[in-house]
Write a structure and sequence with these properties.
18 strands, alpha+beta, Beta-lactamase
């Protein structure tokens, strides 16, 4: 867990290095039971505590809806009780991984049993999971206490859950898509490194059961996964497309330093840095071509580049801003926009700029996360878009990291891919993303505003398919025939399904025709 940083810079090492990744977090989870016997958590973001109150566990929790039912004789001493189960993931607000879990407990007349949990490291992302030794399946019993029997605003929560269920994509087995080529392409994905593959077509999600070391996962559409850099597309990428549709594309060419106070929030290292920074636009940041700092991913995250680690593990947003601007010009270029250099911090900066732009337009209570939830995700039927943020004194959401941290479900990923595939149209035909910008995505194979391109030649025709990509083999494709393809990897160390394998799947999906 990056012990080298603590060894090299013990005074500057963040407290995260003292947390225990083997300790289950002690956290409160509120549930209510729906009319159709679903066990629904009240808090659908990461359940965490402020820094001053947290336990020594590295982990926090994000929970999803499960079920309740009457126990039976096979449940032994609890045969006359009720039984409940729910999906959850152990996550960490500053990182991107999700350790996929399943929990169950018994309850009756104000009494509750210990909670039994099982966990598998099947979700591809996160620095811990990049350790080749972290291939861990775990199970145990967690002491559990019921503290209350009332839920505030339960009636409105019940109604909201009815809407949530109605918004969910209906599912069918992959074979029902009617394409043997697609079935064969999914079967060809390495089962060791692939968690799941799903295709959205004509409003239906086609997917096969999700398998874990414990068997078939019972809540595949509520399973929260870590997708690492897919976040770049889900957060700053989609936010930029929505803002461009709403306010025009000119905001992309505003200078990023205009959103910060030089001399107060940060200081230029030298005159050359000041001159270069004053040229960098929001578009440059979204393209990861600022012309500032180290030249690419490996150099940026090299062990000797302590500035990057101090930025990523700072608890305070003020420190993150200082560390972001604490770099000199890239000597390989003479200005921004000349060279693509994969640097995660640029997506954080782009997200911060857009957050401040939104506050200028909508007021101080507005935020990028609220904007995304209300103006991008809710219109496509996503009710709980969750992601990790920096910590706050209250324990509430802070600022998104932009480059990682999203904790979507397969349903959310499929809908996001479908939105891009449709040219920014919602299912009811409303244009919410910039048609002007999206229309240019298929015209080149270049990286574009937080989206990659899968470049294919089919029947002699060159095709550029926009897609989201994250470490561990996570990819979401937006096909020109309106389909979206979701591939979730689980092999963090070796990289998940290969590009050749996913290209075969995309090619097969492109040939699916409407019935």
């Amino acid at each position: 867990m990056f012990d080298f940083l603590k060894e090299q810079d013990p005074a500057g090492a963040a407290k995260i290095f003292d947390l225990d990744a083997q300790l289950f977090p002690g956290l409160d989870i509120e549930f209510f039971t729906s009319s159709d016997n679903r066990l629904v958590p009240v808090q659908r973001d990461i359940i965490r505590k402020p820094i001053v109150d947290r336990t020594n566990s590295f982990w926090e929790i994000i929970a999803g809806p499960g079920r309740v039912w009457a126990a039976s004789q096979v449940d032994g001493e609890y045969a006359s009780w009720n039984k409940a189960a729910f999906p959850f993931s152990l996550v960490q607000s500053q990182e991107g991984q999700a350790w996929i879990g399943l929990a169950s407990f018994y309850y009756q007349d104000g009494k509750v049993s210990d909670t039994r949990v099982q966990l598998s490291s099947d979700s591809g992302s996160g620095f811990i999971f990049w350790d080749p030794d972290f291939d861990v399946n775990a199970w145990g019993e967690i002491p559990t206490v019921q503290t209350s029997t009332t839920i505030e605003n339960e009636s409105s929560l019940q109604n909201a859950y009815v809407v949530e269920r109605a918004n969910r994509l209906p599912t069918k087995p992959l074979a029902d898509l009617g394409s043997q080529a697609v079935v064969d392409a999914v079967a060809a994905l390495d089962p060791i490194s692939t968690l799941s593959a799903a295709i959205t077509y004509n409003g239906t999600l086609y997917m096969d059961p999700v398998k874990t070391p414990f068997g078939v996962y019972p809540y595949p559409q509520d399973m929260r996964v870590g997708v690492w850099s897919v976040t770049k597309s889900l957060v700053p990428g989609l936010a930029a497309l929505r803002l461009a549709e709403k306010y025009g594309t000119d905001f992309l060419d505003t200078k990023i330093v205009d959103y910060f106070k030089a001399g107060e929030e940060f200081h230029y290292i030298d005159a050359a840095s000041e001159a270069r920074w004053k040229q960098v636009t929001l578009r440059n940041a979204l393209q990861m071509s600022t012309g500032m700092g180290t030249t690419d991913y490996d150099a940026n995250w090299a062990k000797e580049n302590l500035n990057t680690y101090k930025w990523s593990y700072s608890y305070k947003i003020e420190d993150m801003i200082r560390y972001y601007f604490n770099v000199t010009p890239n000597p390989e270029v003479t200005g921004p926009g000349q060279k693509f250099a994969y640097i995660d911090q640029d997506m954080w900066l782009a997200s911060m700029v857009m957050d401040r732009f939104i506050k200028q337009k909508q007021g101080p209570d507005a935020s990028l996360i609220k904007f995304l939830r209300n103006e991008v995700y809710k219109p496509i039927g996503v009710d709980h878009f969750a992601l990790g943020t920096n910590y706050t004194d209250s324990g509430e959401l802070g600022y998104t990291y932009g480059g990682w941290g999203a904790l979507p479900t397969i349903d959310i990923l499929a809908k996001a891919g479908r939105l891009v595939a449709s040219g920014g149209l919602t299912p009811n035909g409303r244009q919410i993303l910039s048609k002007e910008l999206l229309s240019t995505y298929p015209s080149s194979g270049d990286y574009q505003l937080a989206f990659w391109k899968q470049n294919l030649t089919i029947d002699g025709i060159e095709i550029h398919v926009p897609y989201m990509s994250g470490a561990g083999g996570n990819k979401i494709y937006a096909l020109p025939n309106g389909m979206s393809v979701v591939v979730l990897g689980r092999d963090n160390y070796n990289g998940g399904p290969t590009d050749e394998q996913t290209a075969e799947l995309v090619t097969a999906a492109l040939k699916v025709t409407k019935p």
